[in-house]
Amino acid sequence: MEFFLCVIGMVMIVEGLPYFAFPEKVKHWMEKALEIPNEALRWIGFIMMFFGLGLVYFGKR
Q: Could you tell me the pTM of the whole model?
């Protein structure tokens, strides 16, 4: 559980950096994301989850 909490904390740090450093750009990126079709966002999410799972697998090996 301790490792899990550390990982979640690191994810929150990495996710929060753009909002802290470049809030104007993040707003612009969010506007652009609204233009991307739902199906494309689903594929992007699936691919990111797949590669993330691969990184975890190889990191724990």
A: 0.69
